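Hi F.,

I've been meaning to write this up properly since the lab meeting, where we talked about keeping a consistent format for the predictions we share between groups. The idea is simple: the sequence comes first, exactly as it goes in, then the structure tokens exactly as they come out, then a line or two of notes. No screenshots and no reformatting. I'm using this chain as the first example so we have something concrete to point to.
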Amino acid sequence: MQIGALRLSQQHIAQAQCQSPAQVVAHFGGMQGQDFPGVKWSIALRLHQATQAAVNRAFDEAKIIRTWPMRGTLHVVAAEDVRWILSLTSPKNLAGSQKRRDALELDDKTLARCHQVFIKTLQGGQQKSREEMYAALQAAGISVEGQRGYHLLWNAALHGLICFAATADKEQNFALLEEWVAPAKEKTRDAALAALALRYFISHGPATLKDFIWWSSLSATEARAGFEDIKSQLVSETLGKTVYWIAPDRVAPQEKSSVFALPGFDEYILGYQDRSAVLDAQHAEKICPGGNGMFASTIVVNGQVVGTWKRNFKKSGIDMMASPFGAMSKKEQLNFEQAALRYGHFMGLPVRVV
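Output, unedited:
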């Protein structure tokens, strides 16, 4: 089984199968979104000739939503999925933050006050920047020093009160989720567990149950329950002692050489607890130096991470610099140049590989 090649196909990197940013995001259930420019490229590279403007438009039209669902970290989810996914994942994430709340001196009364401040600040279709949200809290006598401000935004988002909304320059403003996102059909908890599990294995397969438990941030018991409900819709293959699951109608991997320039927090890397199938352990430090949580942009050749890349914006366009872990063939270098040109099309700027 060619795990890397199959994942490139199932993740729609090797073969774009969606027609819009919303379809891409819905396919995954959620896409890692800490790096806003990066997640926009993650979405676009899974479409035919998509531009940053097109992805921005999907955010601005509330078709895709950025908030804190899986693992309590920023992800992008489809508008129709945001409420049921938050309802499914938030309880465990909120319960796990109790010590942090205590350290920040944020009791239930203070959190309730903050929620009221946010409602008053945003109601009526208002959108505010992070700084404006902090200013509203401070005006109400609530300190945002240290990490308090960020935690208050995070807490309100997990309760389904606020979310990121329209794009503003390089970031997004906040809005009330109830006002920004159109109502959608609710799911029972059991149905939500099954739906999230199916989305994960269809989009991320071949993947393991441990990968899903980690990715979803659900308890092992709940994640297994969701998996058991949809297991009959998947097929498995065992390599060594590891059982991988994937959709039975998986797309066959492309045989030709493929080179992709992925952003740092792409699901191809971040979507799994065990990344060894596509990333050699000896290079893990180069992807995330010191395990600091900051992931470099990667070069993927035939399913394997073979290097990193950086960009440098100039008046004349973008310089892209490749840092391969080893020698790249002439064909691979040429294919990387094509991947760079694709990124340039996304940004609407000329690109030069240096």
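Notes:
The chain has two domains: 12-180, 259-353.
The mean pLDDT is 95.

If this format works for you, I'll send the rest the same way.

G.
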